[in-house]
Amino acid sequence: MVKSILLVGVGGQGTILASKLLTTGLMEAGYDVKMSEIHGMSQREGSVSSQVRYGDEIQSPVIEIGGADILVSFEKMEALRWFKYLKPNGKVIVNDYEIDSMPILSGKEEYSQGIIDEISSRASTIVIDAQKYALQLGNSKVMNVILLGSIIKAMELEAINWEKIVRDNVKPQFVEVNLKAIEVGMNLL
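RE: above sequence
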């Protein structure tokens, strides 16, 4: 059985790092994994997406419209922008966090109000204030790993040795805070 996870955010949020940790963990657990990432001006608050597909045999890294089992949005406007990729019975995990992306900063779009209400009315939605928990851990940059923890729990991937994955892929000075961040994220679901 193939599972598809779509991670979306804004440049600088650590979306790609979270997807790489996820992919590494899935591979070490023996899954066939394909990952595709789009950096869309990520250095300038542009949209960033990462598609992770895993199972016994994966032919393509690309998630088709209506094909994601779970949509994990690191920034709430991105959840709305990518919503069409969610399966009809899929789940959304959305970080209740706003960043003005390039279209908003340039005046081409306005930041939509009521995003979480709209998404919640259309799909099973879990809302997380990852910034609040990251600040409690003393490092705002671990929002991405908190959200990774929520993916681990939502996709029932707790049996994977995430401590090893973090220790092998994160700078030593940030290992402990990232391990705590995964635990926080898993406990939010």
